[in-house]
């Protein structure tokens, strides 16, 4: 879906006139835009092609926004969603992860001052359960330390005393979708103590049991076919 100009841009050498550019008034460029729209940019993490019309129809039904939703494909495999009330947009973001045909949808908010083509779409929020922690270690500090090992720690489900209790503690983490999911970690202290903790992920879409990555199944894993069966 790339344009001819996009393909040429890899080796584009600007002319003197192009390099001189265009000077625009500061008030025009830096003025805060007046917008009644609220945006999300996204992409589908899949090796399979998809039909934009089918995706649009599915998202409208799944999100069910009270004030409406517009959908538009932009460059590459990215799409842009326009909502007309911040509550509709925020409900979608807080309920991540979403999936389409069991493939992960990576979604991120976009400000009117942002270029949606440049927004980072390599992280997705997941709820993760940490199993194996002693009761006295189910604190925000410990959860944050472990969560930042998995990705980017967001929050933990704790009681009013700042602790969790039970067989596991639930945290929310932004995970790099290009890396294998972490199944377990051996926690060590400088005193020589060791504790094995394991992880389960809520609403996990298609992923590969062979390499642990999202976006494809084991039978489609290139690593499996390159591991020397012949």
From TrEMBL:
Q: What are the recorded GO MF terms, alphabetically? A: nucleic acid binding; zinc ion binding
Keyword set for this entry?
Answer: Metal-binding, Zinc, Zinc-finger
InterPro entries from the xrefs?
At4g02000-like, DUF4283, Zn_knuckle_CX2CX4HX4C, Znf_CCHC
Question: Does Protease appear among the keywords?
Answer: no
* Claim: Zinc-finger is one of the keywords in the record: yes
- The residue ranges of the CCHC-type domain are 208-221
PROSITE patterns listed in its UniProt record: ZF_CCHC
Signal peptide region: none
Q: Which PANTHER family match?
A: DUF4283 DOMAIN-CONTAINING PROTEIN (PTHR31286:SF178), GLYCINE-RICH CELL WALL STRUCTURAL PROTEIN 1.8-LIKE (PTHR31286)
User: Any idea what this protein is called?
Assistant: CCHC-type domain-containing protein
User: Which taxonomic lineage is given here?
Assistant: Eukaryota, Viridiplantae, Streptophyta, Embryophyta, Tracheophyta
């Amino acid at each position: 879906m790339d344009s001819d100009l996009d393909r040429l841009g890899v080796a584009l050498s600007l002319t003197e006139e192009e390099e001189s550019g265009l000077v625009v008034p500061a008030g025009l460029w830096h003025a805060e835009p007046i917008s009644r729209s609220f945006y999300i940019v996204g992409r589908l993490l899949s090796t399979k092609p998809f039909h934009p019309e089918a995706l649009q129809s599915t998202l409208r039904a799944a999100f069910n926004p009270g004030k409406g939703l517009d959908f538009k494909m932009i460059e590459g495999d990215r799409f842009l969603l326009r909502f007309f009330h911040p509550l509709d947009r925020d409900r979608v973001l807080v309920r991540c992860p979403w999936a389409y045909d069991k493939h992960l949808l990576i979604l991120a908010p976009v400000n009117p001052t942002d270029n949606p083509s440049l927004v980072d779409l390599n992280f997705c929020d997941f709820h993760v359960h940490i199993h194996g922690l002693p009761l006295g270690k189910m604190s925000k500090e410990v959860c944050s330390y472990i969560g930042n090992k998995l990705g980017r720690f967001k929050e933990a489900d704790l009681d009013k005393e700042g602790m969790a209790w039970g067989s596991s503690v639930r945290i929310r983490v932004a995970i790099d979708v290009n890396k294998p999911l972490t199944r377990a970690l051996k926690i060590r202290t400088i005193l020589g103590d060791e504790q094995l903790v394991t992880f389960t992920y809520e609403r996990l879409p298609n992923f590969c049991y062979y390499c642990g990555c999202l976006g494809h199944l084991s039978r489609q894993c290139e690593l499996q076919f390159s591991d020397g069966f012949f």
